[in-house]
Amino acid sequence: MAAKAAGSLPGCARQKAPDPLNLTNQKMKPSPTQYILALARTFPCLEAKLKFWHPANFDADDFHKMIGGWSTSERHAAYFVLTVWNPGYARDRGWTFDVVEAISSLDVINRRPILEWMARPYYP
Prior knowledge:
By secondary structure, the chain is mainly alpha-helical. The protein has one domain. Helices cover 51% and strands 0% of the residues. It has helices at residues 32-40, 44-50, 60-66, 72-85, 87-93, 99-105, 108-119. It is globular. It starts with 31 loop residues before the first helix and ends in a 5-residue tail after the last helix. Residues 1-18 have low confidence and may be disordered.
């Protein structure tokens, strides 16, 4: 029996991942600030922290200043957002996002934004 190609195996078909930010349903592409704020707000653990934060332009340094007293899980979510915003800048600033540590720290519902983004990565 000949082996089937990986793409033809049951359950291996490439499926379109859901868009957690509904970006594909918008007529116009969101601005980088709109995208990154929407991404940050997909984390339930950050919802209360960001409820009243509506900057006209996202500033990574300002966002980083906010996370000082946050829990470990909240910081993992924030470092993920900062890394998506600008991976090189985050690395240069020492704002490291460790996916293994984050997944082991975050509960299932707060892992979802990371996993959904990984299925369909987008950099603003």
